[in-house]
Write a structure and sequence with these properties.
Blueprint (H helix, E strand, L loop, with lengths): L6 E7 L4 H11 L5 E8 L5 H8 L4 E3 L11 H13 L4 E4 L8 H6 L4 E5 L11 H7 L4 E8 L9 E8 L6 H30 L10
Parallel strand pairs: 1-2, 1-4, 2-3, 4-5
Antiparallel strand pairs: 5-6, 6-7
Helix pairs in contact: 1-6
The structure holds glycinamide ribonucleotide (GAR).
């Protein structure tokens, strides 16, 4: 049987890394034709880095510089070089809490994706599930989208919905959204893998969208 050519991915995160785990588990079990080349975090003691070690994936801490919501331009340039050096072809943001700008967007056009715990364009930003509760929504969910230079903004690739239960707590809602995230994100990465594998066949190209 011919093997699908594997897509090299880099995962960026700032926190606990449960989405990273979902993707790495799918790779390990053999049903995602990707290779995780590198995990990068802007938080020195982020559990996502421990997770990379657990799965024996190369990992690195990127000191973010003096800004709170973005990387300093030189540091973002350094991130580009690090990812390129690792051979990364698709950048997967998994709880990476900084907005990316030109260095990354120019280096990886249509090759950076993000997951967000709301039905975008509703509730971009922090703790989106709490925003949905406060707004009195009856349905929310999660979204995977291409990344641009705005917060949780860019072409939507896939969404999953969840009904908000009466009197539901924020913790319960976030936990139920995360269950969906762990299905949706690997499924979207799998789509990229499929397109990538097809593109390696003669007369085909890896299309941009
Ligand atoms: C996820 O719920 C993800 O959707 C959210 O951060 C969490 C990371 O969890 N991302 C955003 O809010 C992006 N604006 P994880 O570290 O367990 O994957």
């Amino acid at each position: 049987m011919t093997q699908m050519k594997r897509l090299s991915i880099g995962i960026l995160g700032s926190g606990k890394g449960s989405n990273c785990r979902a993707i790495l588990e799918r790779i390990r079990s053999g049903d995602l034709a990707a290779e995780a080349r590198l995990v990068v975090s802007d938080v020195l003691d982020a559990p996502i880095l421990d997770m990379a070690r657990e799965f024996r994936v190369a990992n690195t801490y990127l000191p973010p510089g003096r800004f709170r919501t973005r990387l300093e331009p030189e540091i973002e340039e350094q991130l580009v070089q690090t990812l390129r050096h690792a051979g990364v072809e698709l950048v997967v943001l998994a709880g990476f809490m900084r907005v990316l700008h030109q260095p990354m967007l120019k280096a990886f056009p249509h090759r950076i994706i993000n997951i967000h715990p709301s039905l975008l364009p509703k509730f971009p930003g922090l703790e989106a599930w709490k925003q949905a509760l406060v707004a009195g929504e009856t349905v929310t969910g999660c979204t995977v989208h291409y990344v641009d230079d705005r917060i949780d903004h860019g072409q939507i690739l896939a969404q999953k919905e969840v009904k908000i239960l009466p009197n539901e707590s924020a913790e319960s809602l976030h936990a139920r959204i995360q269950v969906l995230e762990h299905e949706l994100y690997p499924a979207v990465v799998a789509e990229f893998c499929k397109r990538y594998a097809e593109a390696t066949q003669p007369d085909k190209g890896w299309s941009d969208n």
